[in-house]
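the four lines:
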Amino acid sequence: MNDKATGLELNHESRLQIEDHQSIRLWLRLLTCTNMIEQRLRARLREEFATTLPRFDFMAQLDRAPDGLTMGELSQRMMVSGGNVSGIANQLSGEGLIDRSPVPDNRRTLCVTLTDKGRSRFADMAAAHERWVVEMLGDLSQAEHQQIMMHLTKLKRGVAALES
Amino acid sequence: MNDKATGLELNHESRLQIEDHQSIRLWLRLLTCTNMIEQRLRARLREEFATTLPRFDFMAQLDRAPDGLTMGELSQRMMVSGGNVSGIANQLSGEGLIDRSPVPDNRRTLCVTLTDKGRSRFADMAAAHERWVVEMLGDLSQAEHQQIMMHLTKLKRGVAALES
DNA sequence: CTTAAATACTTTAAATCTAAAATGTTGGAC
DNA sequence: GTCCAACATTTTAGATTTAAAGTATTTAAG
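prediction for all of em together
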């Protein structure tokens, strides 16, 4: 049976291999695009605001959550380790850009918020950041934006749904 | 004139803002997808092969270039600093997975190649790596693959074409 | 109430990564 | 030939990151 089906099996297999390689190529392309954009943003944040991408991300998460976030929520949303978040929080707190206030009914958690200084500092950076991103993604039409978003949404769901 | 056109200007401006936010959202989605995939790959490489993503990437670049690559080429292709490449090369060389041989007509450059041991070690990892990636991107049809690739190619060109 | 597991966070140790300086090499300009 | 800028790489110092261990708190089971 295996021998008889060899022709078809090969076709099938070679098709699969092509699809596999396409997956790898797609992943590498995704990685390249992200790296390119990330490196540009990183360089510009350093040059123009003397800050880093993780610090910017930290503040962006807080800016989007006016009621504040716990350290754990920040860790999840930034997709970095908890220890990392602690370190960045120490810096930003030292510079007076964020507040860490205890939560009444749970002494383990801290609620992190932007200070007024932090909020206004972030506003400047966010405006520039948005300009840079638009500049980089500007070649794509709105229709293309929507298509990629749709596909990446599907991709994201697929990855998130995997076990472990 | 400015006052007269206010209505239209506002429309125009708000449309622009929407597009701007879409660019940001697209960038964040791109980043999230890449991070999710990257973290899974990183964890699996560690669990199953006791190695890291940069080391895997280093070997993958060499596997794709049978004639070998210089340190500078590796740095470019991996999109990391030269110093970083030196460090990883030291590790892999110490484990007998790569060779660094001088180039006859230019004593500044080193030609890096996989050893037989490195090539066979990489083959195992690459097979698993490909399974993992296919597993994660498998929800997308071939047509979708091609569409995203097309869009990311355009995106990549746009970013690469920017000054500086 | 006591204990044990789970949770939220921080600390630690080691690896990674970067920018910048240092080293050695090459290729003209003169 | 001599110098000087450009190049390829390594080294260095410092920042970032992670996984894992540690601390403190909460929850819930017995």
